[in-house]
Design a protein that fits this description.
The chain is mostly beta strands and 942 residues long. The chain is 6% helix and 32% strand. It has a 28-stranded mixed β-sheet that branches. A hairpin with a 2-residue loop joins strand 64 and strand 65. The radius of gyration is 33 Å and the shape is elongated. This is Lipoprotein. Keywords: Signal.
Amino acid sequence: MELKNIFKLTALSTALAATLGLAGCGGDINISTGNDTTTPATPTTPTTPTQSAQELSYSGFATKSATTVDGKEVWVLKGTLAPSTAASTISTGGQDGDLIVLGDDVVWQLDGAVVAGGDNENSVELSILPGTQILGGSDSYLVISRGSTIMAEGTAAEPIVFTSVEAGLGQEGEAGQWGGLVLLGNAPVNTCPDLTNCAASFEVGNYNYGGNDTEDSSGSIKYVRVEFGGFKINDTQEMNGISFAGVGAGTEVDHVQVHLNNDDGLEFWGGNVSVSNIVLTENFDDSLDWTNGWQGSAQHVYIRLADNGSNRGIEADSNSDANATPMSQPALANITIEVANGTNSGGDDAEGILFRKGTGAFAYNMLVKGDVDSGECLEVNDDATVNNANTAALTMQHSLVDCVEPFKDAKVDAEAGTSLALDVEAWYTGQEGNLVGASDLDGYMPNSSSVALTGGKADLSNLDARLDNAEYIGAFDGTNDWTSGWTTAIHDDVDTTPEALPVMTSCPVGTTASNAVAGLYKDASVTLICTLEGNVLSNTTLLAGQNVMYKIDGGAVLVGADKTTSATLAIQAGAKLFATSNSYIAISRGSKIMAQGSAEHPIVMTSEEDVIAGAEGERGQWGGLVILGNGLTNKCPDKNACDASFEVGDFPYGGNDNADNSGQISYVVVKYAGFKVNDTQEMNGISFAAVGSGTQVDHIQVHANGDDGVEFWGGAVNLKYVYLTENFDDSLDWTNGWTGKAQFVYITHEDGNANRGIEGDSHKGATDIPVSAPMLANFTILPGTDIENASGDKGEGILLRVATAGELYNVLVQGRKGSTGTTETGECLELDGTYAGLVDNVNASTLTMSHSIIDCNEPFKYSSDNTTTADAVNVETWFLGQDGNSTAAVAITDGMPAASDTTLLGTGKDLSTDDSFFESTNFIGAFDGQTDWRQGWAFEPQ
């Protein structure tokens, strides 16, 4: 009887050293070393050894290891795979002449360079069955020679996986643990002057590639994952995940992932191969790289760079010789690039796309999203590439750049040998359909409100037969996630535990450092105070750290100079800011704030008193956040020469661009702001002065502000997921032509310290345009009691006046219900026709409200100082005469209806079919009874 030694992972290294390091994938792996002692019987008659099915199938081209992995034998591939004249051995796998089939009944090991076929001779077809795993050791890689083919066709349920021995053993997979996959073809490359006699030398192993056959086929690669490759050859070279060298258009490549490669993800040296549905994640150098005349195509490509671990999403070259042909000129479509932060260990910044060395390209529907510490997202470099950009050999259309540092120009540099300049922003924005603004993504998937879903180039297949029609920007349509089921590191296998913020030892450039006084702050872990003050004229990033806070001091911290010097104030997720009593932040026209918090790590802006030990946060202890944009405001008759003056600081705002981009504010909490300027003015929590729709605002809270929570002066900025708590005057206020949108807004008041939930104005002059006409949906407003605050204002719901228009849907106003003015809310819905334009808007149905509920003791009020319009609108009749409205009683808890509710749930209007900004809903109010979108990031008043 044979005795087996079973090893756990912790005891594998000795066994592997003796058996070529072979094992399969999974948790605890059972390895039989085959070296146990047995007592042989003395045979009485000679016997013939019986071969297993695997031995019969694979012995002709592979070697059986003494190791078994989880019940599967391990078979070793080494050297050249050549045709055979022996009889067919194919069962599950095997060989029949020039066909070699790697079955999934065993685990395969690459030992050194494994080469399929000779160079255009002794060709083979290497077929790999679905679900097969191929493990590579430290010096191993697989080469498909010219004239040979690989047929690696997995499925979503059973992808083919190339990985490292370490990862196969369940140990940690790391970049560079093996080589990669190399395909060598007979298609054109511009390093061969004579394509009929071309033998370009591949950078590893000196294998030949290139030729004159654009339709050459190197086989098929589908549902294949290549991970942890890219071993180091020398100080300047590592292997790529998959290398396509002179590979022709007859090759089929789709649903391929390269993950954590130590050099590029995919690289193309010439050729005409097209690829689609590609996932490139955390690769060290460039995710998608081409050179030497690649003229294929790439569509539906998702690229995610690693913080402090990657270089570029795309690095695109043709040849240092601008006259070399063919010129690289691929067709690109529907690519999403998530640019990371920081630099990799080679000192390279994380960047988006670099076009250089004379490349051309026809790019459509590209989405590049940068982070707060990303490098440039789109760069064009060198004279030959500038010429291509100027002559439409290099084009980019219907694309979206959402980056802190969006562009880098080509410049005249005699030392570098360049004599031509290119304004990359002007080149980009001057082409059809291109956008610069917020991408509005949930991870890599666009939200229903994202401009990416509707901004893509139509009829791509008519432009290039290799492309599919996909009329959206980026790799995803918002519904179909084609990465599911076969990829790694982007779905359930991702660790969702929030990363702890780092401990910082110094302050960022642009701030002044001081040590925290022991015992001064409520948070004893704070050891470093970084102060920001004055005029910020260069890009500044406030880095998040568990031991650091940022002090806003010295009055207005003004970012940029109005339309002359652009700067970006970037704030990392988890950063904590506090401000002194006279201080606030203002973002000039042409500049940006990129406050990109997260549910796990929101950004908090508060008062100094709120963070000092022994003090308490209260209304009006600092200023707030002011965003100044180039959007339309009816304060300016001439929109092309508009310099409206903001009410605090006289900063100019306004212009003619309602799509203007002032950056992003996501997962941001603003507390205890709104200092008093004079007897009639206080600062708002967040002021949007003519801010354009290119700005992304979501998941924001303003708490206990001394004046309004958020206020809009014109513009078209949109908001989603807004929590406004205990603000003193109006929670949400608009005037001067705001035409934006808002969905999912929850407003609560403190009794005796608030006025209205909504106060909506437009203009006093009959010719003032634009007219305020926001589109609002899914609001819940809980106004305070009908007692005066310190300014003499009482708790009320909604007041629409001063000629505003607008559309309101799915709104719930539930007032306090008592028997006296001190225990009940004031009027919950009021129209004020003092300025007759409001009555005109009612009569013209440009001011509407539907699918809403007013649940109050004093539901309606109409007021007017103009006797000619005193009874022009009966508010109750107007409200109840529109679709879906009622004065029904509702039951909610902390804003949330019960899951079984039938008054609010199932009675709302779905606006998503009318306007892509809005998410699909069928309920009234801010919540669906199941999901509380405040959880994890919002401040909850006690």
